Amino acid sequence: MRGNRPNKIIGIAKNLDFKKILVLKDKHIYDDNSINSILRNIISEIEKKSLIDIILIQYAIESWFLSDINAINQVFNVRINKNISNPESIQNPDKELNNILEKFGKKYIKSYEIGKKIMETANFNEIANKCKSFEKFLIKLKNLT
């Protein structure tokens, strides 16, 4: 499931036979109470609530990308010489990534393909060390097996 439509969780949970559904949700500008309320309302419509595990990403998934500058360097063929120690504190990580790339004449355009390339190149340990949401994601994935 891609996009910013958490209501899709309901259809997936009701119509498909899964043992577990792991949902990654960008918080964007929402505070914890607002986003948790939205998600609680959605989950309340699902019979098997234990199927659903939700991981909130602080602001946006691009914070994960910013955790591993080497992966960005490889994917975009640039030489960024910057260490971002706390990428989950950046309120608009997608804009930050674009601003960094613009210095090299490149643009970041949000897409599944670019995100996939970055994550295929990324060092998961480095991301987990800098982003608690990614660390939680890895733990949940490991517990699925």
Core attributes:
145 residues, mainly alpha, two-stranded parallel ribbon, 2 strands, elongated
Structural write-up:
- The protein has 145 residues and is mainly alpha-helical.
- The chain has two domains: 8-57, no CATH class; 62-132, no CATH class.
- It has eight helices and two strands, in the order H-E-H-E-H-H-H-H-H-H.
- A two-stranded parallel sheet has the order 1-2.
- The longest helix is centred in the last third of the chain and has 13 residues, at 132-144.
- The chain starts with 7 loop residues before the first helix and ends with a helix.
Write the layout of secondary structure elements.
Blueprint (H helix, E strand, L loop, with lengths): L7 H8 L5 E6 L5 H12 L8 E6 L4 H6 L1 H8 L16 H10 L9 H10 L2 H7 L1 H13 L1
Parallel strand pairs: 1-2
Helix pairs in contact: 4-6, 7-8
